Amino acid sequence: MTNVVFHAESLRPEYAPGPVEAIALPRVTYRLSIAFAVSAFVSAVLTYVFGGLLWATPVMNGSCRGTALVMFAIAVPAMAAAMWATARGLVPAVVVWFGMALHLTYNTVLMLLGEPMNRLFLLYEVSLALGIAASVSLFVSVDHRTLARHFSAVRSARPFAVYLWVVAGLNALVWLRRIVPAVIDDTVPELLDGTGISVVPTYLSDLAFWLPLVALSAWWLWRRRLHGYLLAGGALAFWALEGLTVAVDQWFGHRADPSSDVASGGVVIPFALLSMIGSIVLWRFLRQHDES
């Protein structure tokens, strides 16, 4: 059984014997997350069931419906289960809760940017606002010392940090490999052919915010900073499901318009396998905790 003694100047843990308490969170954090889960579930179900409400090209509409399916069928139930487990004292569950909140927020952004304004726009906006509020509330409300104390058994956090850097780096390289030549050769419109939109939402959100956030979480975990356990753990949970989300949205998009190059059936299996790998990495991270 291990505990952690913290030095205020470094916020890095050292090991010492002692008990580990449960995570206590304020009611407002639960209420915001519940409201977000409900709004995300409703907007995703409506998106999937009433595809006629979407006004983009068939391939983009198909991809959006595939994303919505994963959101209401997996992400929302997983977030609800993690909230329930956290309330009952299962400390690692808060990592999954945070990861699912990030996943739902991320994909709500994609649904807003990947489709022309439609009848679901305001519902997406409400869901995004609640997602940001719920994620921030959870991050600032968690007792990071208690969480780090619980994960004090993760004596070798660096492999998980390296994994996150690889994920962020490869994603950035794939996007930049397409963007840089198009910008240099003035062929940007070719990147948008068949999408019906003015910017690829993943390029915008990933490079500006999400990939830097994952890289930062890996650095904090590498340095064993207090906030790194929740942020990096959430990033692991996010990627474990996002790989599957990409596989599903690509399958739906390709099925909606097999002639389009925007979605490819050839990436379905690779991304499904990446999701399996991500799930294994997340499981190993969650299992390496102090079970006292």
Care to describe what's here?
The chain is an all-alpha fold and 292 residues long. The chain has one domain (3-287). Helices cover 70% and strands 3% of the residues. The chain has helices spanning 27-49, 58-87, 93-113, 121-141, 144-150, 158-184, 188-191, 201-222, 228-256, 268-287, and strands at 3-6, 13-16. It has a two-stranded antiparallel sheet. The longest helix is centred in the first third of the chain and has 30 residues, at 58-87. The model is unreliable at 1-19 (pLDDT under 50).
What share of residues is helical?
55-70%
Count of separate structural domains: 1
Computed Rg: 20 Å
Distance between the termini: 6 Å
Mean pLDDT, rounded to whole units? 89
Order of strands across the main sheet: 1-2
Give the H and E element order: EEHHHHHHHHHH
User: Which class best fits the helix and strand makeup?
Assistant: mainly alpha
According to DSSP, the number of beta strands is: 2
Count of helices?
A: 10
Q: Categorize the overall geometry.
A: globular
Q: Beta-strand level of the residues, as a percent range?
A: under 5%
Low-pLDDT regions = 1-19
Main sheet: strands, sense, barrel: 2 strands, antiparallel
